[in-house]
Amino acid sequence: MNNNSDITELGDLAIGMRAAYVRGENAMEYARKMSNTDVNSSVATLIAYDLQAGSYIANAKSDPKAREHWCNQLAAILNPYVTAESAILEVGCGEATTLAGVLNRLNNKPMQALGFDISWSRCAHGLTWLKENEASARLFVADLFDIPLGDASVDVVYTSHSIEPNGGREEAAIKELLRVAGRVVVLIEPLYELASANAQARMRSHGYVQHLKATAESLGAVVHDYRLLDYCANPLNPSGLMLIKKTAANLSKSSTIQWRCPLTHTPLIENSSGFFSPKTGIIYPVLAGIPLLRSNHAVVASSFEQLNFLRRLP
Ligand SMILES: C[S@@+](CC[C@H](N)C(=O)[O-])C[C@H]1O[C@@H](n2cnc3c(N)ncnc32)[C@H](O)[C@@H]1O
């Protein structure tokens, strides 16, 4: 989907999805009906999740035991790959309820922790949750199909049910995660092929991902672990693990975070007012402390450097 159609779709769906949500309906379902499709577009996903922002923190507070089980399980899977020198990224981190719990349970505190979500509101709630839980991570807005980071710039890339709503785009999602990962990609996602018939029917009706293992293998990835998890919040959405290690040939020596423009793939220089690409004159702004790094956020500001903004700001 190109960016112009994204903007048009946002205009078409914003009012109707909000009204559907207020009526207590499923906003994604409303969007699928309006667009006469079985799949969830990025814009529909963004609006639907943004409308629900705050609900994951409310759930985490009302059922701390469930959160604890979930985060313990993920930390145990990630532990062998995280050292004190590592950079770790949660893709589609929502309100950081998983990210904060995982960070607090890892044996080694990684040198850098990052999380991004397509929804600004969820990142904003996430920052408060991180603070409340004394965890520290860099949160930003981005699209998992165009991650604003350089190749192999994060050692450990993981998801927790964030590829889930992107049925039909499995290949593009896995390709992008493999690009950004330096050592390992850990997908914690519902595994359609291992699910019951009832769960499969539900997953199909929600436009959820399928064929993750076959897709990864078709891309040449070697899947090292593939199974359902012991603990799962909803048996009709069975959480599983798919672990992909980068091969020796494409293993990065040391991951350093390099920001890159999601539109032109040129390097971005960070400062307090935004992320600037000297090669293109494009800047991505920061809203209330949260970098906006989707291609739709690009602002052409060729004079940003010339007027010394790069030097003026800390
Ligand atoms: C089911 S929630 C899980 C949130 C979080 N990972 C957790 O464990 O609590 C799925 C999240 O994925 C995000 N998401 C879905 N598609 C995305 C995309 N294309 N780019 C970035 N985030 C996305 C949604 O906004 C939502 O916050």
Characteristics:
alpha/beta; 7-stranded mixed sheet; 5-stranded antiparallel sheet; 314 residues; globular; Rossmann fold
Please summarize the sheet with the most strands. 7 strands, mixed
What would you call the structural class? alpha/beta
Number of strands: 12
Number of helices: 12
Overall morphology? globular
Distance between the termini: 36 Å
Q: Please give the CATH class of the largest domain.
A: Alpha Beta
CATH fold title of the largest domain: Rossmann fold
> How big a fraction of the residues is strand?
15-25%
The CATH architecture of the largest domain is: 3-Layer(aba) Sandwich
Task: Describe what is shown at a glance.
The protein has 314 residues and is α/β, with parallel strands linked by helices.
Write a structural description.
The chain is of the alpha/beta class and 314 residues long. It has three domains: 3-52; 57-250, Vaccinia Virus protein VP39 (Rossmann fold); 269-312, N-terminal domain of TfIIb (Single Sheet), CATH 2.20.25. Helices cover 38% and strands 20% of the residues. The strands form two sheets. Strands 3-2-1-4-5-7-6 form a seven-stranded mixed β-sheet, with helices on both faces. Strands 8, 9, 10, 11 and 12 form a five-stranded antiparallel β-sheet that branches. Helix 1 packs across helix 2, helix 1 (3-22) runs parallel beside helix 3 and helix 5 (64-78) crosses helix 6. The chain binds S-adenosylmethionine (SAM).
